[in-house]
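Checklist before submission:
- one chain only
- standard amino acids only
- sequence pasted in full

Submission:
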Amino acid sequence: LVRAQQRTLERTYIATDKDVYVAGERVWCSAFCVTPSGALSGISRVAYLELHAAGALAATARIDLENGRGAGALELPGALPTGNYRLIAYTAQDKAEKGYDYEGIASKTISVFNVLTTDRVKDGVEIVSGEEYARIAAERSQAPATASAAVELRWENGQLHLLNRSGEALSLSLSVYHDDGILSNGNPGIGDFLASVRQVRPADFDNNVIPDYEGEVIGGRVVGFSSEMLPKLIGKYAFLSSPSDKSDVYVAPIREDGSLVFFTGNIFGDKECVCEVEGVDPDLNCHVEILSPYVNPAVAPSPVLRVSESLSGALRLRSVGMQLERRFAADTLYDHLPRPTDGLFDEDVVVRYVLDDYTRFPTMAEVFIEFIPEIRARRHSDGTRDIQVRLSELASTPVFSSGSSLMMLDGVPVFDQEKIMQYDPLLVESIDIYPHTHFIGNRVFEGVVNFVTYTRNLPSFRFGDNARVIDYQGVCVPMAFTGASIPQDGGYPDYRQTIYWHPLLEVGAEQSLEIDCRKPLYSGRFKAVVEGMTAAGAPVSAQISFELR
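Returned file contents:
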């Protein structure tokens, strides 16, 4: 037999802004997904991150990948006990690979200190004297630092200078953080990672695992019904959507065993999503359950974390910085990096009607009759009504669709169109009409209408029994933290530990960058670390230390 399992192997390296954190901080991540040749992979669109300690899964995140590169953040819960944790990363390709080593070179150890409790990872913390801790630090400082000649870092006149000497374009992560003397774990760098990847042997795959070629493949199943009722579901469709003024709508046919699969283009951010089965018998009380994409493999205990009383001052400063950042910064101080835009509906052809103070009507029927010629409602003999869109693609003279068009409220499909007819127009800010045939998964709709409310969250709308609203963890919104957004007037009490982070820094051949790092409110020693790859797949790394006063 031809090896049906022949698929491209992938390994994902995660560069983090530092290796030591306090509980409640963000672990900023930069992903490098490569093939065994060492080149960035263009296959998977999602990297899955898991943080483990003492046999338990502590935190998870998803990162959007564009041609092998991606960025995100993993939120450390504030209740995490002190100890070392194992961060693992993988793609759907890796989940399909038989015998994949989740603790291999594509994993790293990070240290977490919880200064608000005395909780510790079981058997994972050792208390040592200040003298012993200083001795360990001195031994580690004698180890030769690995660096490549491809990039040069300098700190001059209050600026960080980065020079690309490789003769090729570079894709990098860059972190500048406070070096307060707390020991890190000495994780393998990107050079060790790429050398190991080139030694990976071919493997067999489980072809039941679907690769994330276009975006995350979300598995689910219909639950809440008896096996005798299952035939009534075959041929029906489930919809997954998230409330907003944009369109995150995905369709999945229900299989014979009640399972289903949504093929997405990646849903960004943590959202409330609506799962609903279309056209199901009201007496068939069923709903969609989304399956977790995480493997949660058995992970061996991380190395013991050595802790000394001499660290108390540094840890207090880290805790203050974490609490102030969570209190004042939220996401307002971070720079949002470019991300793919949703292409389900063509915004160039949308017909938009704004329901302002001069175009208000007490009922939705009057809105259609008096204000919007592109929409009409047709009443059936049983009293129900279909809402139809006048299509502009069928003939030189536009004609209305022959059946029901797709109605959405804040981007969420509404299949009982009588609910749209009864909805309060005073809650609606605009009505967006897409007068063309649209294909969503296996479904075809003759025209789409999206009723956008002022709040974008379906106010006063009641779902049917077969709909569920779930908390969904989407892929991370890629962000950098350059300090440029910090108020100059002192309105933000600035005790940041990471003072600069850019996870997707692209540097042209022989290009030089001058980077401003906003100084925090304290003096100390800081470290700049850069990791990445050349366009040809060679590793790049460098680091320097400098004083800020």
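Reviewer check: Confidence is low (pLDDT under 50) at residues 1-5.
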